[in-house]
From TrEMBL:
Keyword Membrane: yes
Keywords: Lectin, Membrane, Transmembrane
Record InterPro entries: CEMIP/CEMIP2 (IPR052252), ILEI/PANDER_dom (IPR039477)
Gene Ontology terms for molecular function: carbohydrate binding
Protein name: Transmembrane protein 2 isoform a
PROSITE patterns reported in the protein's UniProt record: GG_LECTIN
Short name of any one Pfam family annotated for the protein: ILEI
Domain ILEI/PANDER stretches: 1-84
Organism field: Macaca mulatta
PANTHER family the UniProt entry points to: CELL SURFACE HYALURONIDASE (PTHR15535:SF26), TRANSMEMBRANE PROTEIN 2-RELATED (PTHR15535)
Amino acid sequence: VIDQDTAKILESERFDTHEYHNESRRLQEFLRFQDPGRIVAIAVGDSAAKSLLQGTIQMIQERLGSELIRGLGYRQAWALVGVIDGGSTSCNESVRNYENHSSGGKALAQREFYTVDGQKFSVTAYSEWIEGVSLSGFRVEVVDGVKLNLLDDVSSWKPGDQIVVASTDYSMYQAEEFTLLPCSECSHFQVKVKETPQFLHMGEIIDGVDMRAEVGILTRNIVIQGEVEESCYAENQCQFFDYDTFGGHVMIMKNFT
């Protein structure tokens, strides 16, 4: 289940509707209590039809707009991406038959959405049999880059420039580099990056503490160079850091001497 406003994954569940009627009832209740507008992705992992109750089928039809669930058979690969109470027009689904230990390709369902900030993202579900092995999964991905909201005017930054977003975690390894994309709709305080962030970077002041990640341009940068020590810090620390990293804490303040 995905939040339609933020693209955040809210819940992830497994239901064995092949072996157990109770699992079918649990799926029915799971869908019943989802808020309207929530995005739901479903994919068959093995076989789903044997103990799939009529009430559950009806729930999937009514709340997600599925037209293929009623005819789902043994080991058929089925995938769906839909919106709670969005009807059949908001539902994308696909099914493939199981023959000779294979489904002959993926049952692939995909739809694109926009967050409240205007960021485009896609939700994908897939189900497949290959040589008797079932494969299924989900993806939530940013489409056409990620937009970052910054504090300062960055209108001088250009497409192709490299930037770094500092870690807001305890780990320095969560600093990330990105490439800027063209963004005609961006304000002077926004940029769009090509890569998808692998880590969470804070962007708020929390309880009076400024937790916002620093963002710096690497393509046209100012180098502040300190004196290199003649020996390792403390005892044998250099064995862990034989490369350059983003780190430290240097503050440059206007009109300060």
